[in-house]
Description:
2 copies of one chain form a homodimer.
Chain A: E1 2-4, H1 7-19, E2 24-29, H2 35-47, E3 50-55, H3 75-85, E4 89-91, H4 95-98, E5 105-109, H5 116-120, H6 124-139, E6 143-147, H7 151-163, E7 169-173, H8 193-198, H9 200-214, H10 220-234, E8 238-246, E9 259-267, E10 272-280
Parallel strand pairs in A: 1-4, 2-3, 2-6, 3-4, 6-7
Antiparallel strand pairs in A: 8-9, 9-10
Helix pairs in contact in A: 6-7, 9-10
Amino acid sequence: MKVIRSVKEMQNTMLEQKSSGKSIGFVPTMGYLHEGHLTLIKQARRENDVVAVSIFVNPLQFGANEDLSTYPRDFERDSQLAEESGADYLFYPDASEMYPRPLAIKVTVGDRTDVLCGRSRPGHFDGVAAVLLKLFNIVVPDFAYFGMKDAQQVAVIDMLITDYNIPVTLKTVETVRESDGLAKSSRNVYLQPNEREEAVILNKSLNEAREGIINGERDPEKVLSFMRERIQQNSSGTIDYIELYSYPELKPVKEIKGTIIIALAVKFTKARLIDNTIISI
Amino acid sequence: MKVIRSVKEMQNTMLEQKSSGKSIGFVPTMGYLHEGHLTLIKQARRENDVVAVSIFVNPLQFGANEDLSTYPRDFERDSQLAEESGADYLFYPDASEMYPRPLAIKVTVGDRTDVLCGRSRPGHFDGVAAVLLKLFNIVVPDFAYFGMKDAQQVAVIDMLITDYNIPVTLKTVETVRESDGLAKSSRNVYLQPNEREEAVILNKSLNEAREGIINGERDPEKVLSFMRERIQQNSSGTIDYIELYSYPELKPVKEIKGTIIIALAVKFTKARLIDNTIISI
């Protein structure tokens, strides 16, 4: 596996692969790789001639009071894990390489962002869209792999690709979980021991809601208040949101039908965790 | 030459050429081709394996009171001229193919646009940037060709390519002129006979200003007031702007030095004409 830190070198290398007819699979990450990321890399490996992974903690998608400076980093470990999972190229630029000057042309995501994480993180998805527009142009992938844990991010990227005809196919992969059901996340390391135990209720309440819906519940309000109660009674975390929308449009629904997402965010002392489930009935 | 009207077909065709190692030269136009466009196509032909031309009158870059509906169109003639000049593919989508729904993700150009045409055409360059982002993704060119008549457009595209690492190299070509110096433009057909004669003063005053600067004039105000007088005395047109800036930054200068642009726009009865000159001292 080759580590590349320069935008120009990465782009030239990838364009060369592309012009020789090879398919490129791309897994963009912010590093501190866990099994969720590795699942994406392994799938990219199975489906492409060339696999590129990027590690870039994108400052543009962090708000002023968010955890940019404390976001966990471990390049040596990441590098080894990426190689073992089948990456051919690891793109690892620093912020001044990606943003040598402030962007003069801004990207604004005007749909699917006034809900869920978008509401509590203004500008977050603008930053996500901008960096992916850049990364897609640098890596020129045929396929890009994203985990469904960030379902709203997937919905936004889907719009970005459609609106601007980006020649990449989005591949989504199921959320990878710990044995007790907690969604894998780079931020889980910041949970205190009791919080780590309590955090199980996030996925558990989503599963209970799913079961309720499969058994006939059609009222979003009833589902959400049941979940709210379950999480409040079983954890010390503060609920940031628990919401239910159509997917991928992320529009409110009065009655549960078609494909919907239930998504939640809960704040613990040093980590804000997200999880979701998508249900088609 | 093959005419393609579908985004998907164009993109697949171009990606196939790209993956077989061929270089792609691209000339985006709004049609009604004149010698300026043909010069771009011929240069693309000399420098690339494959030449793609697009004809798309982009509604997003026209303001509410602008000439979208009356913008001149002649597809049969354009098609013949493009083929004769060396185009292999002519991409000719309609508006619903390019914008099946309103863009949910907007592009906003926040620099180099508060002057010249940007000032009198709010949102114009946002529309230009959005359509080029789409076209670059559809045509995947190695080289894209633009005329220097739209110097501000070139400055904006240069920023777009830099900000988002678009894997395309910008090629600019000198403004092509009639024998009397008038810049070729699709809109020249809307000049009345006396206006056509008067319009010669646009280029003439630019040349006179250039001469003055070469002979030592360094005061932008003096250059501009001289030009204003020359145009007012020799034409019935209304001056929209005559301005002088650093290039390509398009920042005001107090003293003429380095590379500068003098650009103007003059409104005649049914046509607004632009022209410019770039001077390096």
